[in-house]
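User: Run a structure prediction on this.
Assistant: Running it now.
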Amino acid sequence: MTVSVDTKARSIAVLYIFTRKPRDGRHCGVAVEIERLRGTIDQREVKQTLANAGLDPSLQVGKWKDFKVLVLRVTESKGDRTYVKLTTLVPLEREAIQIKVFGDAADEREIRGINQDLLDNLDGPSNWATPEEHIADKFEHLGLLALSIGIPVVLILFGMRQSRARNRLLRERGELAPISH
């Protein structure tokens, strides 16, 4: 079921909402909300957040394509009911989205499965570099570093060799005094 939502009042635009009716007498079914973030996600900031993830048990790592993405897990209790919501940030190239999957905490396995199914089936280019692109970028930087250090070293060594050869030739002609130790 798709629900129409007025997005003009929100800074984050809701693209789609899908719901599954409650079952087994629960108050809440499972709902999926996909939102535009009106911008991109900086990979360096996410990596820093992932590096610090051990401090917050509700911040988890998900997988989309070859990327590690942030999954925020939030639980909320209302009365005798507990609900869980997973919010995943997806770094699409032109504009990032976030996927929210929420429902009764008793359905968390299903919620996690839906979240991962959405990630597995979501396709599109990313503004993030793949691990292979990171490696190629590092090798390119290493090559530039080697050239920037290697060329001056070669020129200095060549200059020293030329200077020694010139001095030896001048000593042989007698135009340069021999070196005394």
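The chain is about 35% helix and 30% strand.
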